[in-house]
Write a structure and sequence with these properties.
The chain is of the alpha/beta class. It is built from eight helices and 19 strands. The chain folds into two domains: 246 residues, P-loop containing nucleotide triphosphate hydrolases (Rossmann fold, 3-Layer(aba) Sandwich); 106 residues, Immunoglobulin-like (Sandwich). Helix 3 crosses helix 4 and helix 5 runs parallel beside helix 6. The chain starts with 5 loop residues before the first strand and ends with a strand. The relative contact order is 0.12.
Amino acid sequence: MRPGEIVLEEATRSFKVTHERSQTLKELAVSFGRRSRRPTEVHALRGVDLRVEPGEAVGIVGRNGAGKTSLLRCLAGIVPLDSGRADTGGRTVSLLELGAGFGQDFTGRENIWLNGALYGFDREEIEERIDRIVEFSELGEFIDVPVKAYSTGMFLRLGFAIVAHLDADVLLIDEILAVGDESFQRKCLARISEQMERGATLVLVSHDPAAIERVCDRVVVLDAGQKAFDGGVAEGLLHYHRMLGTESGGSQSLRPSAGGALTIAELEVKDDEGRVRHMFRPGEVLRADLVVAGPAERAVLALEVRGERGELLFRTDATIGAVEDTLEASFEIPRLALLGGDYDLSAGVGDQDPPFGGQLDRVARFSVAHVATGEGVADLRGTWTVAGRTEAVS
């Protein structure tokens, strides 16, 4: 196998799934001695043939359950095939699951050393890359915090930063990039492009057409464990959307602009010193800087903060008046009253009336570090008074 070459021949993989519902004590007693339900066999891959040349970038798309992740796991050597062949040439690095291979009690820095060693890098090779990995991750002081306190977004940043700097011959990346905010996704895709310019081979699983179009020159569509299409990017994405019955869905925004030419041209999350940040502690200053593109006689801005499941946590709007070309605005939160997790900051602008919900056309994601003294979403930590003694909970 040449470095960077990938070969799948008649790759077949199935899993046995047992569907068991919880039973009462009476049902267990009555059914004692009877055979349990036979497991159902699920075919993840059905005789898939695929050959990728060194330096090629291939996007894998398909419905949920089509076999995309199983294909990457077989290529990475995590899951064996039932039959057929799955080989990669040279050093293969994969990013398939958040936190995979991380020691939860180790700091981010210690996990860089651990992951580097797991991929076969010696001490000198890791030492040469560690500063670049830390800088790329944008974790700042959190790099020396145990990763068990990390949010989903922080895991993503550290995991991708490690994978992106190990100079592999083959990169296997799953849908995991969808977790990051827009600016970090752009940064990741730019780094992937740099790796490919050095000759690395990429296999990228993603539901994001923009990511596929930007870095891939070939698309493979999987359907029910079989290869349904293998060819150019534009044709492949069109085939996929036709299969889903959404031919134009790949190029439509889920959050369309509220007012024609009136849009949010830029949205950045910053700290009190004006630095672009994505990681915060509860109680810190958070500032949203926006650029509004007009024209409009009476523009109205709206800002929302939503949780990991999309629930609305906060909303505000303000009339900013006439916009001729572009206008800069900012909204400052003097004390971020949120506990650990990942959050979406959404912004939109309307002419005369404030936009709502799906009309907000810009989204930036930020993360808040977990704390040991509070759980939930809202940071309402205060003081406990017990038998005349007052103790601050911080």
